[in-house]
Amino acid sequence: MLNSPRNKATLHILNLRNPDYIKELQIISKLVQLFKRKLKEDNTKVAITYYFRDTKFADKVLQTAHNTDESIDLLVISSEKENAEHSFHLSNYAQQIINQANIPVLISKPEKITNEKGIVLQELERKMNCN
Q: What contacts 47, CB < 8 A, 6 or more positions away?
């Protein structure tokens, strides 16, 4: 329970975005707004950092996790399936982090992926207006 009075945890979020996918910036921005709103409601401290420079995401995640003054207990990443036929295969990005991380790693994989950014934005707008 993150909002427990005894819990002094802070969620550190490294928000990665491939510079080749400009259209996703709007989706990321709305997701961050929703997330920050929810964390504020739950009295949870959050620190958000953005990384948009290149596609070396695994290197940046590992560098950030290993070179921090903060004590990190768990590294949570998202990963898409590399091969649709084999749900247990992870992307090279996820495999690199698992193999090189010096802390436990939790991987979250979406159940389904939609390429329709308009649909994603509509759903986010709906959720933001409901709160």
A: 10, 11, 12, 13
For residue 112, count CB atoms less than 10 angstroms from its CB and return exposed for 0-12, middle for 13-18, buried for 19 or more. Answer: exposed
Q: How do residues 68-120 score in pLDDT, each as one tens digit?
A: 888 888 899 887 655 555 556 678 888 899 999 999 999 887 766 666 777 77
pTM: 0.68
Number of DSSP helices (H) and strands (E) in the chain, helices first: 4, 4
DSSP summary character for residue 15? E
Length of the chain: 131
DSSP one-letter code for 50: E
